[in-house]
């Protein structure tokens, strides 16, 4: 199609239009539009963008908060985890609870574990891993046994790798019996981190280790396998 000079102004629009129609919503033009829209919406109350920024700031300031202030913040976040209609905000509120030392924060994390959205439950796993206490280890083990979402269970297995407690070993052992190879692989990596042992990706050897049996160590990988793993 040939345009005369009269319609030359249409060319920039024709170039940009496919970007928007194809879902390219991360570009600078979209962000410019989004920020302008956000500023307009801000006139009617705090936007999601503003509320998420507030949570990020609170996480940075936690170390300077008194326990009383943390307790009050946990009370507010616990309510948001249950009542807020935004999945994104519930997930970020859950992550913020993980940075609080007050026992009240654990109440909100328990509620987040029952959220219908997997992204919120993944955030709860990350928060438990950040807390890193005995209760957190117990809850992550429960997620590995009972959650019906694979990504949530993989997140729980990853977070268990942060614990130096030997109680994490049987919790991760449950994942070795899962039929999904991605979860098995994540459990083996976390077991390496917890125990310092290295049986590679040999699931039977890890199962023996978890059960406290003598381990049939796998043969070392061949030179070809080692070279292949470099890429």
Could you characterize what this model shows?
This protein is mostly helical and 231 residues long. Among the domains are: 66-131, Alpha Horseshoe (Leucine-rich Repeat Variant); 141-216, Alpha Horseshoe (Leucine-rich Repeat Variant). Helix content is 68%, strand content 0%. The protein is built from 13 helices and no strands. The chain has helices at 10-21, 28-41, 48-61, 67-83, 87-98, 103-112, 118-131, 134-146, 150-160, 168-176, 181-195, 203-210, 223-229. The relative contact order is 0.06. Mean pLDDT is 83; it is low at 24-45.
Summarize the SSE layout with pairings:
Blueprint: H1 10-21, H2 28-41, H3 48-61, H4 67-83, H5 87-98, H6 103-112, H7 118-131, H8 134-146, H9 150-160, H10 168-176, H11 181-195, H12 203-210, H13 223-229
Helix pairs in contact: 3-5, 4-5, 4-6, 5-6, 5-7, 6-7, 7-8, 7-9, 8-9, 8-10, 9-11, 10-11, 10-12
Helix tally equals: 13
Global morphology: elongated
CATH fold name of the domain at 141-216, please? Answer: Leucine-rich Repeat Variant
Distance between the termini: 46 Å
H/E element string? Answer: HHHHHHHHHHHHH
Radius of gyration: 24 Å
Query: What CATH first level of the domain at 141-216 would be assigned?
Result: Mainly Alpha
Per CATH, which architecture of the domain at 141-216? Alpha Horseshoe
Q: Which structural category do the helix and sheet elements fall into?
A: mainly alpha
- Overall mean pLDDT: 83
Percent of residues in helices comes to 55-70%
List unreliable stretches of 5+ residues.
24-45
Largest sheet: none
Question: Strand content of the residues, in percent?
Answer: under 5%
According to DSSP, the number of beta strands is 0
